[in-house]
Specification:
Homotrimer. Its EC number is 1.7.2.1. The protein is 12% helix and 32% strand. The chain is mainly beta. The radius of gyration is 22 Å and the shape is flat. Bound molecules: copper (II) ion.
């Protein structure tokens, strides 16, 4: 299939999806009122020209751009630009590469932070230096395949999407250019997340506000790298060259790598996440394709929104939480002991053999009351 045919196929798939979404919309519109009770109240659209505008400067994960936890004033129009970058990325210590597809050059793409009721005005840029068609599907958005149907752009094009952030939570965004292109782009790294905070900030589900001193974004990624006849990982000149081989690996549903933030070791050693004893750390964890189960070894989740949606009360005191594929979770923890903590996907094979491990380096005073070594390892008495 040549490039143009591929574009046509994906456009057809997309149009079919849009038609389906239209049917679905009709069905949903006729559901009883009761089903609507929990839906967000949107009300009449305000005159957008009267709303203040704010331009975000995004930063590379695991960091998150500066933001207010409690919104100041009313809704705003938040301007964001994401630039699609196709690039070769090294994903492990052996120099294995992938022809990655990224938003802003990183896997995951940058975290975008807004407040419930804000309008997100996203400019998506596909530079002429890229070779493929891309778009963006925001799970936080309503309609048109999450915006995917309105943002499908060829190299050398850009599009602008505006959607209202009506639901508070942390939501995945990802590329979805139609048909078999969708999983290929997602497992080539093309996903990220948006944090839609309640205007009044987070709370514990009993009306008590919760805040954080630090926030980190961990994007988990499953990669499916083809091997040659000797079992060595293959590399390809261009993304399209590896498509057929990668699909074969994808269909086994067995990733060759499961990593945090784009590569084995991206968040360990010198790149370890840092905190101090007593600090409240919010960990946002996305997985755009596959279920996972984060666990902080030697710590807990004080408050965890497993589903990442803030109108649900958080669960407390968790040991491990579940992130459904295609979603993101939020976990708040106050570190109580210093030391090096491993933060893992607690499928320990994926953590240790495939790469899904991060480190938190925590400074502070040790608390003997919480734990002490009563006897160091010594010969049997
Ligand atoms: Cu894409």
């Amino acid at each position: 299939m040549d490039g143009q045919e591929e574009f046509n196929v994906s456009r057809r798939a997309l149009l079919a999806g849009a038609a389906f979404a239209g049917v679905l919309g009709t069905v949903l519109a006729s559901t009883p009122a009761r089903a609507q009770e929990t839906a967000p109240v949107t009300g009449p659209a305000p005159d957008l020209s009267t709303l203040p505008r704010e331009k975000l400067t995004l930063v590379a994960p695991p960091f998150v751009h500066a933001h207010d936890q409690v919104a100041k004033g009313g809704p705003k129009v938040i301007e964001v630009t994401l630039t699609i970058e196709e690039k070769q990325m090294v994903i492990d210590d052996y120099g294995t590469t992938i022809n990655a597809m990224t938003y802003d050059g990183t896997n995951p793409g940058p975290m975008i932070v807004v407040h419930e009721g804000d309008y997100v005005e996203l400019t998506l840029v596909n530079p002429a230096t890229n070779s493929l068609q891309h778009n963006i599907d925001f799970h936080a958005a309503t309609g048109a395949l999450g915006g995917g149907a309105l943002t499908l752009i060829n190299p050398g094009e850009q599009a602008m999407l505006r959607f209202k952030a009506t639901r508070a939570g942390v939501f995945v965004y990802h590329c979805a250019p139609g048909g078999p292109m969708i999983p290929w782009h997602v497992v080539s790294g093309m996903n990220g997340a948006i944090l839609v905070l309640p205007r009044e900030g987070l709370n514990d589900g009993h009306g008590n506000p919760l805040s954080y001193d630090r926030v980190y974004y961990v994007g988990e990624q499953d990669f499916y790298i083809p091997r040659d006849e000797n079992g060595e990982f293959k590399s390809y000149e261009a993304a399209g060259d590896g498509y057929d081989d990668m699909v074969q690996v994808m269909r086994t549903l067995t990733p060759t790598h499961v990593v945090f933030n784009g590569a084995v070791g991206a968040l360990t050693g010198d790149n370890a996440l840092t905190a101090k004893v007593g600090e409240r750390v919010l960990i946002l964890h996305s997985q755009a394709n596959r279920d996972t189960r984060p666990h902080l070894i030697g710590g807990h989740g004080d408050y965890v929104w497993n589903t990442g949606k803030f109108r649900n009360p958080p669960e407390v005191d968790l040991e491990t939480w579940h992130v459904a594929g295609g979603s993101a979770a939020a976990a708040l923890y106050t570190f109580l002991q210093p030391g090096l903590y491993a933060y893992v996907n607690h499928n320990l094979i994926e953590a240790v053999e495939l790469g899904a491990t991060a480190h938190f380096k925590v400074e502070g005073e040790w608390n003997d009351d919480l734990m002490t070594q009563v006897q160091a390892p010594s010969p049997l008495a």
